[in-house]
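Tokens for chain A. Residues wanted.
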């Protein structure tokens, strides 16, 4: 790599100014500090070009598009292929559905009953919440596909097949929300039962064990619990919570089975990978190809750190550029790579700002 293209210590992984930097991240971590990262990148490499995983496209804007300042169009597909993204979210939903049914069969073999273990219920709520996130992501993809913001490279029949799933997906948020709410009420029953048994002793416990400075806040929490307790416990010895739980579960299960069947029909003639790990790797390799194609684009593209690991594992390239990076003997990976850990070392040590 020509001297000066790397910002800091030449023996340490760093951002470069003269080409594309592909940088690993944990999405939830970087999501909390996205604006700070963008400001850091601008200061560090002198370019404000910063893309999240889903924003980078296979082709740059044409001179005409830049001149006209036209918005991104469907003619420039995203580097992370829509078909694979869609397939991954579908598979995640299916896996979580299997997990939910398996945990219900294991922990509630005779169906839901009044006496339930708090943690057994959690084994149903946790994958349900993951499924809720996946449904949200699919709805975003379908919305972008319908509006033409994404999927411009799909064939007409592929586009139609995906859009035909919209009705099935749109039924899911309400079905999941109702089932989760019924589970949470059901989950509260054993907790409130315990509270009912010990509530007479609580004032004495607070007096003896809670510091004066915290008594006011503790008291407010107890008042809140006492306010909701009668409403929650009112149905404890009746079938109302269980009736609602079974109703919402049956509705959720039927909606989910319809969606899974519809997805299966769209994939019958597909040559796409079937397993989640294979789908994820194919996404990684598509990102690799897009970055290699646009390696001269200055800026930073943040992708999931596991995608970065997939790329390095497959191509096993040296981490540094050769002196003649534009010669015919280009390495397999033409762009600069930083793992999440390497970027964090730079980002979290602010003395590196501006190369100081």
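Reply:
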């Amino acid at each position: 790599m020509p001297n000066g293209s790397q910002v800091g210590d030449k023996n340490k992984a760093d951002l470069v100014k003269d080409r594309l930097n592909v940088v690993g991240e944990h999405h939830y971590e970087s999501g909390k500090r996205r604006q700070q990262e963008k400001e850091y990148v601008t200061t560090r490499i002198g370019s404000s070009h910063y893309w999240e995983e889903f924003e980078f496209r296979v082709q740059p804007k044409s001179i005409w598009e830049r001149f006209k300042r036209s918005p991104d169009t469907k003619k420039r597909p995203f580097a992370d292929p829509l078909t694979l993204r869609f397939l991954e979210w579908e598979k995640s939903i299916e896996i979580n559905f299997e997990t939910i049914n398996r945990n219900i069969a294991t922990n509630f073999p005779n169906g839901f009953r009044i006496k339930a273990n708090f943690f057994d219920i959690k084994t149903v709520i946790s994958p349900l919440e993951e499924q809720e996130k996946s449904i949200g992501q699919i709805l975003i993809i379908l919305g972008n596909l319908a509006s033409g913001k994404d999927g411009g490279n799909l064939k007409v029949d592929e586009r139609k097949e995906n859009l035909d799933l919209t009705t099935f997906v749109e039924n899911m948020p309400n079905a999941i929300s109702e089932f989760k709410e019924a589970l949470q009420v059901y989950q509260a029953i054993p907790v409130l039962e315990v509270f009912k048994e010990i509530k007479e002793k609580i004032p004495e416990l607070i007096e003896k064990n809670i510091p004066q400075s915290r008594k006011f806040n503790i008291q407010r929490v107890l008042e809140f619990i006492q306010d909701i307790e009668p409403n929650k416990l009112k149905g404890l010895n009746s079938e109302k919570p269980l009736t609602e739980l079974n109703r919402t579960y049956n509705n959720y299960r039927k909606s989910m089975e319809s969606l899974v069947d519809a997805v299966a029909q769209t994939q019958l003639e597909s040559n796409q990978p079937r397993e989640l790990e294979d789908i994820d790797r194919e996404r990684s390799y598509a990102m690799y190809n897009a970055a290699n194609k646009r390696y001269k684009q200055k800026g930073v593209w943040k992708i999931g750190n596991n995608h970065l690991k997939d790329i390095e594992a497959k191509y096993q390239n040296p981490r540094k550029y050769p002196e003649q990076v534009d010669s015919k003997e280009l390495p397999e990976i033409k762009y600069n790579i930083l793992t999440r850990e390497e970027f964090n070392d730079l980002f979290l040590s602010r003395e590196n700002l501006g190369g100081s």
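The CA atoms of residues 119 and 187 lie 9 Å apart. The radius of gyration is 26 Å.
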